[in-house]
Amino acid sequence: MPRTLEGQITMEKTPSYFVTKEAPKRIYNMSRDTKLIVVVRNPVTRAISDYTQTLSKNPTIPSFQALAFKNISTGLIDTTWSAVRIGIYAKHLDSWLQYFPLSKFLFVSGERLVSDPAGEMGRVQDFLGLKRVVTDKHFYFNETKGFPCLKKPEGSSRPRCLGKSKGRPHPKIDGQVIQRLQEFYRPFNMKFYQMTGQDFGWD
């Protein structure tokens, strides 16, 4: 990371940091004052979204169901599949809490980021100690994508919407598969709510 002068904030965004075993120690050794923002969404939706992205690059991969289960008849989930493993947020947070106190974290709801982007961005700005500059004037909802777009309220430039890879329709997944995954994640979600002091409403 580059040196940060007084009055500056240096940011870095890599989703895999949260699930990479070595990351907490490395970041702690670099700077124990680092503030950490973790964006999370319903782990079932997250797994399906992950699968959808992979499928768009490689249409020959097995079905979601085939990858998610070690044994479909017993309902045994395959936790070695990264799309499933990433959503066990409590397990990953445990590793981080060995180095950073909870006060260094802000947990952002991926669902609220879509339904109330200004509200979640308000929380981010407060957490970073910034003046609230980004407000609801900066967002409008793009019906086609199903996501908010960012605009400059002065209207000086084109709005910024998420790229082609975002907002793709998800493949249809059998209801029983979704239900089994919800059951699998429920205890981990409950532990995560407890650890963060935040109920994300996924259950």
Automatic annotation (TrEMBL):
InterPro entries: NST/OST, P-loop_NTPase, Sulfotransferase_dom. One of its GO terms (biological process) is heparan sulfate proteoglycan biosynthetic process. It comes from Crocodylus porosus. 3'-phosphoadenylyl sulfate binds at R41, S49, K166, G167, R168, P169, H170. Residues 30-186 form the Sulfotransferase domain. GO terms for molecular function: [heparan sulfate]-glucosamine 3-sulfotransferase activity. Pfam families: Sulfotransfer_1 (PF00685). Its EC number is 2.8.2.-. It comes from the Eukaryota. Belongs to the sulfotransferase 1 family. The keyword Glycoprotein applies. Disulfide bonds join C149-C161. Keywords: Disulfide bond, Glycoprotein, Transferase. This is Sulfotransferase.
